[in-house]
Fold DUF7007 domain-containing protein.
Amino acid sequence: MSTSVKAPAKAKRKPRHIVPQACLASLNEPPRSALRWEEGSTNEATGVREFQAFASINGGDERQVAIVSAEPRGKDRFFYRCEKILCFEEYDSDKMRVRSSFGVYGFNFADLDTQIGRSVKNVEIMAGNPMYVGRSVSPQSLEHLSRGPWGKIQNARALRFDQHGRPDIVTVSTAGHGGYILSEDATKEMPSPLRSGRCYEEDCGWSRVALSFPELFTPLELHTAQRTLANYEPDVWEKYFGQELVPGMSQEKDNRTFLAKHAEDYLVVSAITSKDYPGFVEVTAVRGKMTGEMNRHHEAKHFYVPSEEYSAKSRREPYFVIDLDRHSEEPPCLEVKNELTEDEAPSP
């Protein structure tokens, strides 16, 4: 059963020039569903345990909303992965069902509970408000819009229509990519710091559309949009919100600071576990100022780094920094124990 979205009134829309403060209040902590967890079966061969999450949706009876596997990774340590999660499907008769999931995993169960709780609440909100879902439209109905740079459009959903009933803000998917395509009028409504043409790809650019038209996106989507913009386009974020991102709030800005500090140091750009020298990682490194250069391989050097040291530091910093006093370009000298037989032993 498809949902319908009425065309808006013909009142002329005014361009947006201010940050929607009422919307920003909900970005810090999106709403989430309270989950009840039950432990399921355990694979005796692998030790992988299963957990099931249940929640009440729209005040109804509890239903299963997620399945999580817990894989042992050492003593009292598990790697949690969400295998299935509740999703909203416009054409499903029930509209919500548990299906395969990806991208939700980690070692901290509390963080996983938060992510799943937010996702389940997001599905509940979408199911109760067709505006967030939009309406499927045929690619042929988009002739008045830009074709987009991602190839032939396979599927499209209109989130808003203009005064003539034509798709005004559309999300599209192609064989390889996708994103949002806006009409000329809708583009003019975007705040100038966020406006960048009429097409916004689905990885990062979509965040500009979400923050420009917050009424079309759920609280979780708006929260994700702000984090995406801060992480990948910090200059745009700061110009739009009129605030400065402090360290830890933007991956891109933190990377810039890190690279400026280590411009002359050698930073690891690739690594592989050494087959010839157990306990070491063979790495390729270039100077910090060269990490973004296409011809950086001309400046590259190769080093051997202890595996434990590389594993610990690479999780905390954007790049692993080579210490020229300790990390050698020469293969490590490993102690080799030669057990001689009595016949091979030298005479006293």
User: Anything to note?
Assistant: The longest strand covers residues 62-72. Residues 1-11, 14-27, 336-341 have pLDDT under 50 and may be disordered. Residues 36-116 form one domain. The chain is about 25% helix and 25% strand.
